[in-house]
Every structure is written in C-alpha cells, then in structure tokens.
Amino acid sequence: MKFNINNRFKAVLGCLLAVGLLFSTPSFADQQDSLAQDSTVSAVAADEGAAGEADSAATAPVVDSAAASSPASSTTAATNPAQEQVQQIDPQVYKNLTYYILLFLIVCTIVAVVGKVLSIYELTRKMNGKYNPFANNTLQSVLFVVFLVAFFGFVYYGYAVWGDWAWRAAVTEHGKRIDSMFIITTVVITVVLILVHLLLLTFPYIYRMRANTKAYYYPHNDTIEKIWTIVPAIVLTVLVLFGFFTWRSITNVPEDLQKSALQVEVLGEQFQWQVRYPGADGVIGKRDYRLTTPTNSYGIDFNDKNAWDDIQASDIVLPVNKSVRFHIISKDIIHSFYIPDFRVQINAVPGMTNYFQFTPTVTTEEMRERMNDPKYDYVMLCNKICGSGHYNMQKKVVVVTEAEYKEWLSTQNKYFTEDLQKEFTALDSKESDELTTASLN
Amino acid sequence: MSSTVISHGAAHHDAHDHHHETFLTKYIFSQDHKMIAKQFLITGIVMAVFAMLLSILFRIQLAWPEEDFPILEVFLGKWAEGGRIKPDFFLSLVTIHGTMMVFFVLTAGLSGTFSNLLIPYQLGARDMASPLMNMLSYWFFFAACVIMVASFFVESGPAAAGWTIYPPLSAVPTAIAGSGLGMTLWLVSMTLFIASQVLGGVNYISTVLNMRTKGMDLWKMPLTIWAFFLTAIVGLLSFPVLVSAVVLLFFDRTVGTSFYLSDLVVQGQILPNEGGSPILFQHLFWFLGHPEVYIVVMPALGLTSEVISTNSRKPIFGYHAMVYSLVGITVLSFIVWGHHMFVTGMNPFLGGVFMITTLIIAVPSAVKAFNYIATLWRGNIRFTPAMMFAIGMVSFFVSGGLTGLYLGNAALDINLHDTYFVVAHFHLVMGSASIFGMLCGVYHWYPKMFGRMMDTKLGYLHFWLTFVGAYLVFFPMHFMGIDGVPRRYYTFTAFPFMDKWISVNMLITWAAIIAGLAQVAFLWNFFSSIWRGKRAPQNPWNANTLEWTTPVEHIHGNWPGEIPTVYRWPYDYSKPGHDTDFIPQHIPFSETMSSNLPHDFEGNEEAIRIQNEWNKQNNREVIEG
C-alpha cells in the first residue's frame, strides 16, 4: 500500500515536471531562435556553450543566458578560430534536435504517468471489490466500432476529395474502355471493402467476451464455404474475361491497322526523351547503337535512305482522332513511356523495340477547356527508376487538329543535318576508298 | 516413423542432459531452436527499425522538397549537403528500405523467428532436424545484414537501383553511383541471405515431415505449422532462382558477360555487350519475387489464424478450407510472376495468361478472409494486444488485397503500373499485413520466448497508433497513383499536375513519423519486459497447442520427461459439454467423455463403442457408428 502511494507521489511529481517543461521549453526555443538571428555567424559558435548550460537547466531564466552569451561570444570567437572552422553547421540545428527530443521525452513521460494512474485506478477498484475484469475488453471493442466509423468517413473523404483530384477521364479510344472497367472494379471492391469491414469491426463489439458466455462451437459449414468460394470465383471470372478481351484489343492490333497508323519513335536516355517522326516517306529509318557519335547521338544509320528525311521533334505532337503507333526504344537503361491521361504505358528496353498503338480523341485545347486550366498540358513521363534525374524526365504531348499537325511538322528539323551529311559523305568516300584498296590488294 | 525418431531424440537428450553451456554456446553460437528464434527476432527488429528510419528520411524529402534540414547533413554528410537529400541517395534509401523490409524483416524476421520457435514446440519435437544447419541459417542471415548495412559506408553509396535491381541500371556503374561497390555488396549480401533461407527451409520441411510427436498427423497440425511448412516449400523452390539471377548479374558486372545487356550507350559510352536481355532478369527475379510475397504473408496468415481462434475461444472456421487455400496459394504463387511485367514488353498474349492466373489467386485469399470473419462470429472475443494486431492484419489483408484486382488486370495495370497505387497496394497487403502478423505473433508468444508478459496497455497504445498511422500513410497513396504519379520520384515539383499532392505528402509524412515514434512504445515494452515483465504462467492464453505444455523456463529438449502425445486437433475451444472453454491437444478423448462428438473418432469403431457405453450410462444420445 505504502509503495503505491509512493508511486502516485512520484507520478504527480513527474507530471508537474513534465507540464513545467512543456510550458518552458517552447518559449526557451523561441528565445534561442531570436538569439541566433540577432547574433553574427561568428558569435553563434560560442553560443553553444551557453545553450548547453541552458539546456541542462531547462527551466532556468533564458534571458540571462542570452545576455551573458553575447559579450562572451566576441572573446571566444577571437581566441578560438579553429573551433569555428570545424563548426560549419549552425548550432541552432542541434538545439532544434534537442528540443524535439525533449518534446518526445515529455510525451513519453506523460504516457508513463497516464499508464501509472490507470494501473493505480485499477488497483483501487480491485481493493474496493468493484473491478470489472472485462472493462478493458469492452473498451477495446468499442474502439473498434469508433475506428469503423472513422474509417468509413476517411474512405468517403478519400473518394470524394482525393478521388476528385485524381480522376480525369481518358482521352484515348482504348482509354475509355479501361475507364469503364476501372469504374466497375471500383464499385465491386468498394462494396466488398465496406461489407467486410462492417463485419470484421462490428463482430468484435457484438461478440466481445463477457462473464458466463461461451462461444458457439462451429468448426465448419461446407455449404457456406462453397458459396464464398464460388461467388468470388464467378465475379473474378467476369472481371478476368472483361479484362482479357480489353487487354487483347489494346495490344493485339491487326496488321493492316498497324501499317496505316502514323509511326513515331521515342528513344529514352538518361534523362531525356528523343522523338523521331518518319518524314514524308512514312518509314522510320534504321538505327544502330554502334553508330552513336556526339553529332549523331541518336545512332541513326544513314546508310538506310529511309532515315534521311526523319524528323527530330521537340515535343510529341499528334493529330486528333488518328491512330498512332509508337515505337519505344532505349539508348541506355530501362525507362518507361507513360502518358497518364492517355492510359498509355510501355517500357523502353535497350535491345528491343516495344510498341503501343492508340488514338487520341481530345485535343489539348479542348482538354484545357474541360479542365478549366489554360496551362494544362498532357505529359509523357518516365515511370521506371532510371537514376538521379528520374523524377524530371518528361516530354510535352500536344494533341492538335490534322491541319495544325501538318503545319507543325513542316517547321521541324531533320535528323540528317548538313553537318551529318558532310560527315556521312566523307565517311562514305573513305569507306569506298578502303574498299578499292582492299580489292586492289 | 515419427515414433522411432522421437525415442531416439529422447535418448539423445538424456545422454547430453548434463553438458555445460558457456555464454558463447548458449547465447551466440546456439543450436537451440528457441535461442535461434530469439536471435532472428531481435536481429529482425533491429533491421526493421533501421529500415523504418530510412523510410522516414525519404518521407521527409517528399513532404518538404523545398526545405533544408541541416540536421540531416550532420548524420548523412555529403549525401545531404546543405540539409537536402540528394536524388541518388534518395534512390538508395528507397532501395535499401525495400530490400531490408522484404528480406530481412518480413522473411527472416517473421518466418525465421516463428518457424524456429513454433515448429518444434507445436509439433512436439525436441529441436529442429538439424540444429547445426539452423545455427548456420542464422549466421548467414546475420552476415547478410551486416554487409547490407556496411554498404552505407561505401564511398559511392549503397545500391540505388530499386529493390528489384533491374539491369542494366544495376549492372552499369556509370548509370548510377549506387551500382558500383554498393551493388556488389547488395549481391553478396543477398547470396548469403538466400543460403540462409535454403538452410532454414530444408530444416523446417524435414522437421515438419519427420519429427512430429506421436499422434500428430498432418491434419492435426495447427495452421501456423501448415503456413510455415508451405512457406518453406515456396522458399526452397524459388530462392535458388534468385541466386541464379544474382550470379548472372554478378558475371555481367565483373566478367563482362552479356546475359542481361545489349545495345547500350551509357553516358555517351558505347558498351560492347550484345545479345542479352534485361527481360530475362525480370523473369528470373519475379520467379522468386512473386512467391516471395507469399513467403512474407503466409506465415502472418498462419499466426493470425492461431491467435484469432484462441482469442475468439472458438475453433477456426473451416480448418480444411484454410489449409487447402494455403496449398492453393502455394501452387498458384509460382505461375503468376508475369503480372509484374505486363508493360515491360513481354509478349502481350503471355500477359493475358498471367492475368488469368493472377486473378484466380484471389479466390483462396478471399476464402481465408471470410473464414476469419466467420471465426469471429458468435465468438467470445478476448482482446489481447495480439488479437488486436490479428484483426488489424485481416483488415490490411482485405483492403490491400482488393486493390490487387486492379493491378492483376493487365488492361488496368497499363495506367497503374509503377505508380503510387502499387506502393499503396503492396504496403497494405504484404507490408502492413505481414508486420501486423509478426507483431501479433510477438505479443502472443512473448511469454513462451522470454517467460514474461509484455505490458498490455503499451500494447494497445502501440496497436492503435500503428493501425491508424498505417492507413493514413498508405490509403491516400492510391489516389496519387490513379492520378499517374510514379513511385521512386525524388520530388513532385517537376510536374504541375503533381503540385496538389504535396499537401497530401505532408499528411503522409506526419502520419509516418507519429506511427514511427509509436514503435518506441513497442521497443520499450519488448526490451524492458525481458527483465522486468510480469512472470508468465505456463499457459497464459488458455491455448490448446503443445508449446504451452512445456515449462516456462527454457530447457534443452523442451519437455522435461516424455513428449506429450497428441489426440485431437488444436482448435477444440468452447466445445459443448466440457467444463473449460479449451481442451489442449494432448488431452485424450477418454478424459473428455462428456464433450466428445461423433466426428472426433474418425470411424474408430472401438472408440465409438466405448463412448456409446459411457453415453448409455449417462443417459446421453448414442452415436451412430
């Protein structure tokens, strides 16, 4: 009994100390803040000693230490230049850290005090014979119900606010099919999420342990188990079939449609994208990575005449309502060609070409009106970890009318620049020279 | 078969009863499964804290990308010059956080701890089949941890290619600084880790198959053991494939082979490699990587099954269905790996096939979730901290598993692949769910491990802060993913459409910090209770399984005399007609005549005859033989 009173006494003392610290520390830190701003950089190093003292005292009047440190600082700064050199980081940093650690310790103390108070309360209840062994059990079960309500509120908030931020209808033909499937899936899983949590978190309350109750011995029921095996299986089958055919229709484009589409090649490299349009002939020229030079950083093989009219584009510009077939390649490591608004993604893998064919249906102008944001742009971004610049590897995507597209295309430069042409002819003649000498030999 | 092994074990035990244990053999190079379990657990906890701190670091960067935190420079030096984490180091943080959490915490820390602790205890074995291999398993794991942490002290920094270490990024040191010595250490560490897993796995499987006590047939094993057993099989079949992937990558990096490399011009340098394919690595990696998800989550499911049943005072609903669904998950887990590669350029038709297998795996998972709820129904639920974590685990498993329906669907995955949606999905379904399964196990079996009880109030505090914190952290991420925000982005400031998410990032980071601090409650509780906790009774939870028949003080060989014989399944809770609400597995039916059911005798006519005689004497209904 005596021991308990002692504990309570300690707890009260601790509580007082904690409250005292809580009130004194923020003001203390504020003082230090203003002090750090006032004093010059050279003075700051010396301040630390004073701050350390103040730290240990914690509740000591702060104004004194601040006043004391200012004259002291000028002398120590002069006598101790070496220390200053080591001390490049503002000591305020350490003070802030100490402040937060103290704050956390106070929280811990409070938690400990509350814990002690609770156990003392329990002990006294036990002594008075009023202790209910199930009180805590009931409390926890009620907390589950409280959590359930909060959880539903949170889910609703998420759907309503963040969902609204996140959701933009797709602006491609296949994207619309993906969207409708997305919505169906969302409905299904939201219903399941809510039902399951309703049961999972109310059962603890309804069937919490009470005195003199016994659980219902119910080891299995084959019928119920069959039902909840078959029902998910059916729902999943529907989703799978729906998804499978959508996926096939997106990825399995008939060959004639592949050929009639506009061809565009995109090359990913650390940390930018290059875009190549085929030019007047509609055929993208060959590329050989071994031909990469500072002037021909794309590695285009100009022996292939199809490459001569290939166009270098600064942005990805696409005509609306026209099927585009993207050839995605990589120069160095794996990147990912990702346009969220279009529901388009495929990796750029070195050593192989990946394709994605789609039809944009909404021009950038229309999208800006729809979004009510005059600056809105579609964007293509890298979605596969590729190094330090990964977070900013983007290309603007512009969807325009057919006429605007043609006009834009005519203003773009060719890859086969005059410099490259000269280099190429020089190389060519040298090669033919070599060939003739070789044949002579 | 099993009886001969046991008699041999008993003789062996007697002969060595008096041998002396030094500090070194007892605590360091211990071959005792109980001590090894504790070693795994404490190492796992240390790694978890380390990996959690890494996550807090990158969460700070994501929430306040424009602000300086000079204190970071104090700790991280050149990696956070001026108090801002560098992009390269950010990627290292993400990479090592993922690697440590998945492999060291949720694989070794979870199944290493509880397989070691519970397989001999719950099966009635004196120790593992091979204690020496068991010890090696721990020390390989420990070496792997040390090497992984050591990579933070390398000039060029730790591995930074993501925990999936896709080449060429991980193969070409000029592509990213972390792919220098840091990646070599990662590969060495992982090879050691896999050796540890294989040693452990062989041991678990052979113990389960050979060393069960008398009467413990497979259908009398607790679900925990089923889960560990199947997990060990999955690990044993899939981890070696990762070794091959790692070794080939090692060759590409050092010897100049081209298994994964072809057509590369890195930083203007034309590389000589030709003919390899980065996709090959992805296949090899995910052939382990996907089963790995189930290696992580199945033990958690096993532990929660046991805890939910014990604390609902009710048999687990559909024991056979639970086992078959585990078996189904085990088998299916090997044929779904391609769903990680829908948009990598793998043949799209193959993608369609993987999509079908992937969505099928949702069926056994759904069965498990429904069975948990049915177990709660009409129970008599006691909320120990372990039970709280078990319920939390089911909640995470459901809400994280459901979003798998999007990601497993190849068409929807186009837009969600590698976005925050994926981060949210797997952190809920395998991260949070498994951590909660692990914590549930720690709270439940702590008395068995240390002979003392943990403080329950701190346990509740820990649960609520973590449970709410985890939802606050991961739930908003779904919406970022739907908006198209990619994962592993150093900052969201480079794109106008991501601006709106910075406020949400701050919410997430604060939630993460608070949930992180809440773990101090656990750590304090865990470590202080080792010495100062209340002394545990022999069977604190009134549970049925065999580990609670051992003495509280750990002894070599687990049981002082004969190993108890098992007569019944482990879930006879609240059986009608019995005076207490639990009947441990080693109580024979002859002692519980008043509660026996026809089903219990499995067609044993002699037993039914005896029961019927008793029933007639006591005016009870006669069983139809």
Automatic annotation (TrEMBL), chain A:
Its cofactor is Cu cation. Coiled coil: none annotated. It catalyses: 4 Fe(II)-[cytochrome c] + O2 + 8 H(+)(in) = 4 Fe(III)-[cytochrome c] + 2 H2O + 4 H(+)(out). Gene3D superfamilies: 1.10.287.90, Cupredoxins - blue copper proteins. One of its GO terms (molecular function) is copper ion binding. Binds a copper A center. One of its GO terms (cellular component) is plasma membrane. Its EC number is 7.1.1.9. It is a multi-pass membrane protein. Residues 1-29 form the signal peptide. It comes from the Bacteria. GO terms for biological process: ATP synthesis coupled electron transport. The keyword Signal applies. The chain crosses the membrane at residues 99-121, 142-162, 182-207, 227-247. Residues 259-411 form the Cytochrome oxidase subunit II copper A binding domain. PANTHER family: CYTOCHROME C OXIDASE SUBUNIT 2, CYTOCHROME C OXIDASE, SUBUNIT II. Subunits I and II form the functional core of the enzyme complex. Electrons originating in cytochrome c are transferred via heme a and Cu(A) to the binuclear center formed by heme a3 and Cu(B). Belongs to the cytochrome c oxidase subunit 2 family. This is Cytochrome c oxidase subunit 2. It comes from Sphingobacterium allocomposti.
TrEMBL record, chain B:
One of its GO terms (biological process) is respiratory electron transport chain. One of its GO terms (molecular function) is cytochrome-c oxidase activity. Residues 23-567 form the Cytochrome oxidase subunit I profile domain. It is found in: Membrane. One of its GO terms (cellular component) is membrane. Belongs to the heme-copper respiratory oxidase family. PANTHER family: CYTOCHROME C OXIDASE SUBUNIT 1. This is Cytochrome c oxidase subunit 1. It comes from Sphingobacterium allocomposti.
